[in-house]
Specification:
The chain is an all-alpha fold. Helices cover about 80% and strands about 0% of the residues. The protein is elongated, with a radius of gyration of 26 Å. The chain starts with a helix and ends with a helix.
């Protein structure tokens, strides 16, 4: 079975285009499925993909049978025989591992949302509000499938762009972070809640 670390390394290998044919194949295949879902129902897309896979397998089987019949290939030369030995069972320990990973992601996210909604950090809540406000505009411009398609394309393009322009991107990010920290200090300096907290600490 494929481990989490193995899947992570494979994903990194693909999005950094270390093997361009493999990355292009994965990108185009999933992109074709996502675009198809925009025009057809999910059930229809799954059915068409399944039919296409079956047709390919039938073609391979017929070709192999013909080659064996004409004695141009051996009886055990079927390229699909190797797939019959692939273990497709999901071990219980893998399910527990995946569940643990999901819990490790969900718990901090829930705690962070609670912190933001209860205004435990006013500046962070303000940033959260601005993000939600921006999402309302994004939601009015794009539907969910369009965002998924853009995210998928970005997953394969942004890491490569960053890798090729790392120095200039890091410089811009540093400048933006500096400006954000300056704004944060100015905002926090005029918030009464913080001033009261400082006065209590001084007492």
């Amino acid at each position: 079975m494929v481990s989490y670390e193995g899947a992570k390394e494979t994903s990194k290998y693909l999005v950094h285009w270390e093997n361009p044919p493999a990355s292009a194949g994965v990108l185009s295949a999933i992109l074709a499925v996502l675009v198809s879902i925009c025009y057809f129902s999910l059930i229809a897309v799954i059915a068409y993909i399944s039919l296409a896979i079956l047709l390919v397998i039938m073609g391979v089987k017929v070709y192999n049978f013909a080659m064996v019949f004409m004695k141009k290939a051996d009886q055990g030369s079927d390229p699909l025989l190797s797939l019959t030995n692939v273990d497709v069972n999901i071990p219980p320990e893998k399910v527990a591992e995946i569940t643990g990973i999901l819990v490790d992601i969900a718990n901090p996210s829930i705690m962070e949302l609670r912190r933001l909604f209860l205004l435990e950090s006013v500046f962070d809540t303000i940033k959260f509000i601005l993000c939600l406000w921006g999402l309302t505009y994004i939601g009015s411009w794009f539907n969910m499938m369009t965002l998924i398609i853009l995210s998928w394309v970005g997953l394969f393009t942004l890491p490569l762009l960053y890798k090729n322009n790392q120095a200039s991107v890091d410089e811009v990010v540093t400048q933006v972070n500096t400006q954000i920290n300056d704004i944060k200090e100015k905002v926090m300096s005029i918030i009464p809640i913080k001033n009261k907290g400082l006065m209590k600490k001084e007492e």
